[in-house]
Request: fold
Amino acid sequence: MHELTAEDQREPRGPVLWVTGGGSGMGRASALSAASHGWRVALTGRRPTRLRAVAQEVKASGGEVLLLPGDVRSIENVTECATAIERSWGRLDGLVLAAGMNAPRRTWQDQDLQELRDIVETNLVSVARVVHLALPHLRRSAGTIVVISSYAGWRFSAGAGVAYSASKTALASLCQSLNAQEAASGVRACHLCPGDVDTEFLAQRPEVPGAQARSVMLTANDVARAVQFVLDSPAHVRVDELVISPVSQH
Ligand SMILES: NC(=O)c1ccc[n+]([C@@H]2O[C@H](COP(=O)([O-])OP(=O)(O)OC[C@H]3O[C@@H](n4cnc5c(N)ncnc54)[C@H](OP(=O)(O)O)[C@@H]3O)[C@@H](O)[C@H]2O)c1
Reply:
């Protein structure tokens, strides 16, 4: 299930970050940023080739990486990932939860119910699943959870879709309940809400934006900077919610 790199044999150094959706877009950018700031990064996603490419980048910059291919909708996969992190590095200090999906059919008129379930399962239930399994480890480290939600999870966005909007809006509540219930253990959660970001995620829109529209959007690196700010905040600081959007956001 996981591949240990040569670096795993070395004396542990930095804090440990588990990134879902780590093979592309904001997950990849956050992993690279964190690695360059001394974090060891564990990467989860369904496409091993994409994870391997990111791992090469991490290693090229001198970072430590653990490849954990898997589907966040699978309790078996997620449990194996959490176990592998514990076995390899013996600690967990942060989560960046970027795995997510949408679909082109987004209205009550054209949505598919199975697709609706899949979106809610990926964007909401899987976030809860990973947090649930990671919390015992995060409590020990007073860890930080960054949930990559959406502008649509902060303010209703008509084009985002029925299932997507509902799933991302619920992430605000999930983060609030974490912050209300886990303060004593020092665990902090951030509901991070990006506006339009130029990633491959845009291919799931009913009308895929062209180069000109993408040129005024955020980049994955813009969001990674915000994620790094949250991860690097002192232990007594909680960033409850962070909305980051391009100037052109409607
Ligand atoms: N791009 C935007 O405009 C935008 C704006 C606001 C919020 N967001 C949110 O930002 C997050 C990251 O998206 P992105 O824009 O960076 O696009 P992206 O590159 O498409 O990232 C999504 C990642 O999620 C992974 N993923 C999807 N389903 C998964 C599953 N079942 N199990 C494991 N991994 C899964 C994908 O990898 P595999 O396919 O290999 O599994 C992919 O790496 C998403 O949650 C999205 O909702 C995006």
The chain has a mean pLDDT of 95. The pocket of NAP is lined by residues 20-21, 23-27, 44-47, 50, 71-73, 98-101, 122, 148, 150-151, 194, 196-197, 199-202, 220 (CB under 6 Å). Strands lie at 3-4, 16-20, 40-44, 65-67, 94-97, 144-148, 188-194, 241-244.
